[in-house]
Amino acid sequence: MAVYTTHSAEETRRLARSFAKKLGAVRQQRALVVGLYGNLGSGKTTFTQGLIAAFGVKEDVTSPTFVIEKIYKIKGKGFSHIIHIDAYRLRSADELKVLGWKEIEAESGNLIVVEWPEHVAELLSRGHLILRFSFINHNERIIEIDYGSPEKTKRKTKKETAGAP
Fold first, then answer.
1. What is the domain partition of the chain in residue ranges?
2. What confidence tier does 82 reach under pLDDT thresholds 50, 70, 90?
3. Cα–Cα distance for residue pair 161/43, rounded to 1 Å
């Protein structure tokens, strides 16, 4: 596990771009799922902006809080789509199933970034990458990135992940 302290939104986006370069090493036969755990305002969306920009997406990236899911088509760099999901408003994993979770997770060309993954924990693959975000003050965030092997990542239930895992 690696722990970083960022001192601005731009530093958080830079860290995300660096993280994006490492994703090829953890590719799987299914979609690569990245769970972003942390309270409101802890930097999850800012990190996602940097991550998506690292794949060449030029459009503005906002949290899909009300639409739940946004899909960005990308070329090269090992993925064909980035699917950004905000599960904050979901009451259960069943609501994510309706959006076609099985299909998007089965596609190895997908990079799926899930904000508030504890709301849909029972759907996440055992090998999803875990990033924990902590708010320190107006500018600073602590970001923990678990690069652990997918086989060692334990699936947690919603009860076990009240907050960050």
1. 2-146
2. very high
3. 18
Structure tokens at 63: 């949290």
Beta strands in the chain, from DSSP E residues, in sequence order: 2-6, 32-38, 69-73, 81-86, 110-115, 129-135, 141-146
Amino acid at 67: V
Q: Give the pLDDT of residue 51.
A: 95
Residue 47's nearest CA partner among 59, 57, 61 is 61
Q: Which residues contact 55 (CB under 8 A, 6 or more apart)?
A: 20, 72, 74, 77, 79, 82, 111
Q: Mean pLDDT: which of 25-29, 50-54, 74-78, 145-149 is highest?
A: 50-54
Alpha-carbon radius of gyration of the chain = 14
Given a cut of 50, whether residue 78 has pLDDT beyond it is yes
| The architecture CATH gives domain 2-146 | 3-Layer(aba) Sandwich (3.40)
CA-based nearest residue to 48, from 39, 35, 32: 35
